[in-house]
Amino acid sequence: MSYDGGGMTCPGDAGAGPLIEGLRFADPGEETWVPWLHTAWTRRTNLVLVNPDDQAALVTVTITSQDGGTTVSDSLLLPARSYNQLNDLFSQQPWRAISEANGLMIPCCGAGASAVITSDHRLLAMSYVISNNNNSLTISLPR
Q1: In the prediction, which pLDDT does 9 show?
Q2: d(CA 16, CA 128)
Q3: What is the pLDDT of residues 47-97, one digit of tens each?
């Protein structure tokens, strides 16, 4: 019996959701846009990729700088039924090029970036932007 639905005392579909309105797994081949990634050294951006399926997923992540002048892509193979988090994304290669491109614009123009993510299986993508000063958190949900 399940207390999240599907049992005699709690009718409904077991595990029904989403807990956040509109948050869902993208279909295979569907582009997922994750806005407002942050590249400044005062924050760290963690990109989350969830593969719910029984097979490994080939995922392509394409990130573009705030002014659209720099784009970097990379492919990742995510294990079946896995939660994957790329920590402090813009401190790593190949994503550091986005941070460096945005660095040429700071302080006048900002440090934003956005990602377009596709997968050959279902996928959930989102990011956490965390302040290095006080650990405050912004969650960037897919669109």
Answers
A1: 61
A2: 24
A3: 999 999 999 999 999 999 988 999 999 999 999 999 999 999 999 999 999
For residue 28, cis peptide bond before it (omega within 30 degrees of 0): no
Domains defined along the chain, listed by start: 32-140 (2.60.290)
Contacts of 24 (CB under 8 A, 6+ apart): 18, 124
Q: Which of 36, 116, 132 is nearest to 71 (CA)?
A: 116
* C-alpha distances out from residue 85 to 14, 52, 89, Å: 26, 14, 9
Strand order in the sheet with 32-38: 32-38, 112-119, 57-65, 71-78
User: For 36-71, b where at least 16 C-beta lie within 10 A, e where not — what string?
Assistant: bbbbbeebbbbbbbbbebeeebebebebbbbeeebe
Encoded amino acid at 115, one letter = A
State pTM to two decimals: 0.84
Q: What is the pLDDT of residues 87-106, one digit of tens each?
A: 999 999 999 999 988 876 65
